[in-house]
Fold each of these.
Amino acid sequence: MGFPLCALVDDSLESFTIVYFFLFVYLLTSLLMWDIFVLLNANQNKVYLNNKINTYPLFISSLKYLITNNPTLALAFIFLFFSLAGIPPFVGFLSKIYVFFFSSGR
């Protein structure tokens, strides 16, 4: 919550716009990240024993074969992860730069 608080130092309409943009970007990337985890959990390996479906739980180590099983989903996961981390060419970085540049105590 430090980034939105930095933007709220100015009490102006622009600062509220900055906060809404940052929170929208963060909400969207977080939601898409959780959607990927739901897709991975729904498409995991299922084992049929005695006419029952037994599923294995999803572990973090299950992600190591994602690039070979589904490269598109792996690329989307990497882009979303880098966006949440704030790596420069992604939208998460742009929202953080927007907070820093446009709310820097003018």
Amino acid sequence: MFRQEERVTISMMFLCGLGITGLASVAVVLYLRGPLRKLLVELCGNERRAEFWTAFSAVTVGVVPVIFSLASRPSMSPDRPALLQVADQLESGLIGMVLSVLLLGWIIARFIPRVAPKA
């Protein structure tokens, strides 16, 4: 089994990857929140509905990457540097982020009314 210092190192690597993923998630949510809210006010027809769906979207885009990152666990393999293991965890989180943003965009795009081109 692992010695105490190895367990601490594994835990710190895991928390580091999780923290970086969390910060990236917060940055994306902050970046998308304003434009998303404006679009949702237009699509939903009123502020209350738009506020709910904006909050729902922010939670989804913020939490899904962290869930993906939680699924990626580091090991103390001597042939795999710690930095690369943290990068693998971040990669998992970013894949979750891209998937959640793409799904959100696809769902919203389905509700945007199409205007026929004028002849």
